[in-house]
Amino acid sequence: MTGQQAAGITVGGRFRDLDDPDRFVWLRAFPDMAHRRRALEAFYTGPVWRRHRDAANATMVDSDDVLLLRGPGFAPQPGTREVVTTICHPSDAAAFAAYAARHLGPGHALHRTEHAENDFPRLPVRTGEDVRVWFGPSEPPPWPAQRLRLESVTP
Length: 155
Known about the structure:
Layout: H1 2-6, E1 10-17, E2 24-29, H2 33-44, H3 47-58, E3 69-70, E4 82-88, H4 93-103, E5 111-113, E6 132-135, E7 145-152
Antiparallel strand pairs: 1-2, 1-7, 3-5, 4-6, 4-7, 5-6
Protein name: NIPSNAP family protein
Organism: Streptomyces actinomycinicus
């Protein structure tokens, strides 16, 4: 991950999906969208990516299932093996706020869709959705949701 960090990318949690061996999940963080664009440009035009991109791309069946989120970031506590992640599509912001107040604490690291334009289109992101994503066990939400059982991968 040194190449990404050198470009100004903060790499957070990295996970294997325990129910889908072909999927991995990871979080990258940026202070703002302008910094995101500059850091991604620096990384994807830099020597580390040029040297390793073919090998890296060969390991990815699909790299386009990407959410652009705003939130506190998340990295599991050292020694954590499994993390439950929920991706929820709430239909009512006020009702979701009430649900979150009852069922989610600061440790859940609640994220929401970042609706800013993806200013680095070489990396496509899912659009037209309003999602909330959190980490850790919780009561199932009353809206459509996907639960992922993830295994933390230590660098």
